[in-house]
Design brief:
By secondary structure, the chain is an alpha/beta fold. It has helices at residues 13-25, 36-46, 62-70, 86-95, 107-126, 128-131, 160-171, 179-187, 192-209; strands at 5-9, 29-33, 50-53, 77-81, 99-102, 134-137, 140-143, 148-151, 154-155, 176-178, 219-222, 226-229. α7 (160-171) packs across α9 (192-209). Bound molecules: calcium ion. The site of calcium ion has 5 residues, from loops.
Amino acid sequence: MNKPLILVVEDDPPIRNLITTALKTNDYRYLVAANGAQAILEASSHNPDIVLLDLGLPDMDGVQVIRNIRSWSNLPIIVVSARSEDSDKIEALDAGADDYLTKPFSVEELLARLRVIQRRLSFMSAGMAAANSVFVNGRLRVDYAGGCACLDGQELHLTPIEYKLLCLLSKNVGKVLTHTFITQNIWGRSWDNDVASLRVFMATLRKKLEPTPDSPQYIQTHVGIGYRMLKVE
Ligand code: CA
């Protein structure tokens, strides 16, 4: 991907300048929008590679912008917001945001999050055809068509739920998946005890997948929010 185009949605001029300066000096192209309506217009007319989205906008809530964009596009959205409650993060992630960064943030962290999304995008486009049937991530290989997973060439003995979880995480590699999203995909509902079961299945899956389950390499926990499969270099 050469010179990705980033849409910066932010109504606060000093923060907008901070972000656009960082983007410019790091070889990104950018567009700006100071409100939700403009954000939706810019996103639909310029087809940016990634959206950086503030939630507190003058004309509408940023979550509405996420829902609008998600109704027609999968383009990656990173929320950059002063709202730091888990419930706010969960609402934005459930609406379809790919990641969440809390203000005040460091420019270095923002750039790192952008690189994560870019790696995911290039990984997805590079292996689009192959990734549809086989997923490879470091020593892990998931054969969706064959319905099996291997680590270092050794087949993993997974229960049906563990396998479903692994597929869901791998198909969304790099993306934080909320408890609600996961339980709805696995069990078709999201009750409190499903989240408790999810923890149990995640622990058993990790035991089989991670060489050292205490410092996981593949599956990252976001406490109170959900899980993310990391792209292993
Ligand atoms: Ca704002």
